[in-house]
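Lab notebook, bench 4. We co-purified these components, and the gel suggests they stay together. Before we commit to crystallization screens, I want a quick structural picture of the whole thing.
Request: model the full complex, all chains together.
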Amino acid sequence: MSEIQAWIDNEVKSNEVVLFMKGTPTFPQCGFSGQVVQILDYLDVPYKGINVLENDDLRQGIKDYSNWPTIPQLYVKGEFVGGCDIIREMFQSQELQEILGKPATA
Amino acid sequence: MPMEASEIETLIRQSLPDAKVIIRDLAGDGDHFAAEVVSESFRGKSRVQQHQLVYEALKGNMGGELHALALQTSVPD
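Here is the predicted assembly.
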């Protein structure tokens, strides 16, 4: 496992909820990343935001790690949950609330 | 080099011959599309796995030429 893969693996395993995104939770720099940030904030979920724009190895490394070609990528309890489309779908179907241990929302 | 909706459809069909594919060009710039793909090969797979099948069909264009593809996958009823 390369250095960047080991670093990613550690971040994914040592944080309950991790969002690899473009920009930061306070300043998302991409509409898709911003949508996931909005959903997590709406559900009041504490999470770690990691800005992939700061490091090209990370930006490519995360895509290899999950075999997923785009950013953002959300991980919960060490598992890759999905990108923006899937997170939005799971939010609407309440599945996201369930895996995050949050009550169903209206 | 932006992509055409028909190119995306053809690539998906090559890997998922039974797929019903609807592509919408969201921004008219060849870079932002929405795709609905219905295929038997998604049955029993998680959403992530279903989307990965579509991304593999797009042979590396995803994230490169194709910046945004809003995906909706499902199995035939």
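The beta strands of chain A are 17-21, 48-51, 73-76, 79-82. Worth comparing against the SEC data before the next meeting. Chain A has a mean pLDDT of 96.
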